[in-house]
Queue: 2 jobs
Job 1
Amino acid sequence: MAEPDYIDEDNPELIRPQKLINPVKSSRNHQDLHRELRMNQKRGLAPQNKPELQKVMERRKRDQVIKQKEEEAQKKKSDLEIELLKRQQKLEQLELEKQKIQEEQENAPEFVKVKGNLRRTTQDSSEAQNS
């Protein structure tokens, strides 16, 4: 590629091209803002002025990634883990049923408890006579 003629220093009549001034960068407001951003970057502070929509979209994206990872982890579970989880759920259900029965017995009126005791004693005495 050939070099342009104006690079030669020997011709003083030519006007040398100059870099154009950017009006945005030359404004005092922009300089102050840029200085503040550089200082925050050095301190490790990130600007927290994100729009609400951008925050919501980032949160959704993050939740979606977490959900995908959980689904992948569940797909990778072995047969043993699946069987153990089923047994654990069955045990929890049985425990809940026992608690419900116990609460019902505790909350029952006194005459119901006595009636149940009488039935047991009569059954026990009849079994003793049959033996």
Note: The longest helix spans residues 79-107.
Job 2
Amino acid sequence: MTLREKYDLVVIGAGPGGYVAAVRATQLGLRVACVEKSARLGGVCLNVGCIPSKALLDSSEYFHLAKDHFADHGIKIGELRLDLSAMMKRKEQVVEDLTGQVRKLLEGNKVDIIHGAAKLAGSDRVAVTNEDAGDVAMLEAKNILLATGSTPFEVPGLGFDGRYIVSSTEALSFDAVPKHLGIVGGGYIGLELGSVWRRLGSQVTVIEMLPKIAATLDGQVSRSLERILKQQGFEFRMGTKVSKASVSDDKVRVTLVKDGNETSLDCDRLLVGVGRRPLTKGLGLEELGIETDSRSGQILVDEAYRTNISTVYAIGDLIPGPMLAHKASAEGIAAAECMAGLPGEVNYDAIPAVVYTWPEVASVGLTEEQVRERDIPYCIGTYPFSGAGRARCMGEKDGFVKLIAHAKTDRILGVHIIGPRAADMIAECVLAAEFGASSEDIARTIHGHPTFAEALQEAAMAVRKCSIYAS
């Protein structure tokens, strides 16, 4: 065992939460080490999550446009062929480039990068095992930040085999387009990966036990998304549970249960995307006595991201809240600032959420259902993209913007967008929420013409028709 110098902070995990926290801590004058068990930095997001999935979504969208929409623009091509291996190679290159940039970022900020499996060896010590080097290093630290992320949730009876019954990781690297892809779970993971393979030619069946897809979305948006995806060829089995799945003759037979009746579905591949759970195995939480939620397994922290052990902090998917990369990054910055004696914090009312289907879906703040549950007086303004000149120029007329404001104060409570460029448009709404803006603030802000963002301005103007008459 080797003993290394003492650090002000040891970060365990080099994903969007961990590496951002490490950089911010060095900017604040702390001596930092970042421990990562994988050869490539960047965590789940950069390696097998956000980045490769978006690379495939973009590539598959180009294929879809060439196949179904280029002719509308007067662009005629010959026989269209798919080179899936080239598409996968491009995806891997994007991942390699970005993970390499993370390494350069950490090295440029003088963060010591240590590869190996980390385990808490005390309130101020981290043991790092590097099996390749046959070495165990003991790192001393004033503070320790846990940022190990999450792993796909495995459903009983649907155990992953890595080939036929797969998680999102394997669904990013199929060696051939499945003829029929079954997806268990109608959340953003299943819908995004389903979109990739549907565009490339798969028959896609989504099995969801709830009555609506993307259950956390505003109900009106969720219904519109389901309708549009059906038009794209998705099949949905709503209110349906999966009891088991078995593999035989290169096929997966899925047993479905709805209203007490049992049926079966045969597919080539089955993606199980019902959610993720905190990745805490092997960290030594129990030995150190770190408190976790008995149901979710999430680590309990205070407003400074400190666990019940005062020198140990946790962020990202390990703690309560949405499992989003940008949420983890914000928490990483806040945690580092708290360690340095600054007032770091995250405004959880202003965290955007995005579903990268096409059209995209993006939201911030409360849904209409949540506003009703809280008995808040509210007004709604909506505007369809079919009324926006830029959207019509692109032939993207599906979707709308929905803005919810307090009926008496006009303060923005939530914004929900389904349509082209929604992922980028939501940034203006997040800024408005952060500053406590009103719908009138957005309505009176001049937006460029013609742009997609004009639909947001029009929705804000529509709110005024309601709120000026609110009692």
Note: The chain has a mean pLDDT of 95.
